[in-house]
Amino acid sequence: MKSSSTSLPIRKLDSVTFDMLLERQNPLQSVNCTFDLSEVQFISSSALVQLAAACHSLGCDGRQPIIVVYDKAVRTYLIRSGFVQVMQTDVCFQPRMSRILMLTYDYVRGSNPLLIELTKLQTGAELPDLLDHIVYVLRHRLKYKKNDAFDVAIAISEICQNTFDHNAHTCGFLAMQVYQSGSKRFLEIGVADCGDGLAATLGRNPDNPPITSDKEAIYQATQLGTSEFRDRTRGTGLYRLLEIAYKHRGSVQIRSGAATVRFRMDKQRGWHFPVASMPGVQVAFTLPTKIGA
């Protein structure tokens, strides 16, 4: 008998339920490469970048993924969030996204200051505008101090830099959105790639301890100065991201290969979950409205 967690439909696709989707549907290994989102009614920014990375990975292998999506709100969000425009050469949508639908909603792109549309990261040239946007939202919408907002931007910058520094033949993706939860807002940033993953990249540095699993690689990657390179000034991004999350009661999830670690800010430790294997590294990061704001 299936448990309720495996039989219930996925209505909200986020960094947690994306793992459930991969486990149930196995689109990365199946012949037809189908992501069935027919029951989904909401997609978060972290799930958006994971979906983009998974589809891009299949495209790099010469396979065209299919995304089945019927819900009108989800279909229009995929346009407004930039997903359709970025991924349209890699993905086949069922039903197809009509030109009329694209033109109807394309004009609102860029009009939401609380949203960073899905952005493909190929070089550092894409980063300055994205980081400025993140700092603006943290300072003026979530009421963070300037130094705290800059700390977030620096950590995100290093994580984004890793997507093309460690993965010469692929790219990364970033998206951000601010959501309302009761009377408070929270920001979610998703960064994802479909490259070699943490176990492979950290294994290239002979100074790092031996790695026997994706779980170990994730924990190692959060240690200060741990990276692919022997330069001890490298490898600060994930470590700083956790520091920021602990300080401001946010959250961090890191996924690589066949492992996910979700960090609880109240206990300052991570909880490991085995998941369906996926290439690359995917990070989901949230911060709430500043307490007292």
Structure in words:
With 293 residues, the chain is an alpha/beta fold. Helices cover 38% and strands 25% of the residues. It is built from eleven helices and ten strands. It has helices spanning 4-7, 17-25, 45-60, 72-80, 83-87, 99-106, 127-140, 146-165, 198-203, 214-221, 237-248; strands at residues 12-13, 34-36, 42-43, 66-68, 92-94, 115-121, 172-181, 184-193, 251-264, 269-288. The strands form three sheets. Strands 6-7-8-10-9 form a five-stranded antiparallel sheet, with helices on both faces. Strands 2-4-5 form a three-stranded parallel sheet. It is globular and about 50 Å long. The mean pLDDT is 89.
What is the secondary structure topology, with strand pairs?
Elements: H1 4-7, E1 12-13, H2 17-25, E2 34-36, E3 42-43, H3 45-60, E4 66-68, H4 72-80, H5 83-87, E5 92-94, H6 99-106, E6 115-121, H7 127-140, H8 146-165, E7 172-181, E8 184-193, H9 198-203, H10 214-221, H11 237-248, E9 251-264, E10 269-288
Parallel strand pairs: 1-3, 2-4, 4-5
Antiparallel strand pairs: 6-7, 7-8, 8-10, 9-10
Helix pairs in contact: 7-8, 8-11
Keywords, separated by commas or semicolons:
3-stranded parallel sheet, 38% helix, 5-stranded antiparallel sheet, alpha/beta, globular, 293 residues
* Biggest β-sheet description: 5 strands, antiparallel
What is the CA-CA span between the terminal residues?
48 Å
The counted number of beta strands is 10
User: Structural class, from secondary structure content?
Assistant: alpha/beta
Radius of gyration: 18 Å
Mean pLDDT: 89
* Topology order in helix (H) and strand (E) letters: HEHEEHEHHEHEHHEEHHHEE
Low-confidence stretches: none
How many distinct helices? 11
Which descriptor suits the 3D outline? globular
What is the percentage of strand-forming residues?
25-35%
State the helical fraction.
Answer: 25-40%
Strand order within the widest beta sheet: 6-7-8-10-9
Oligomer: single chain
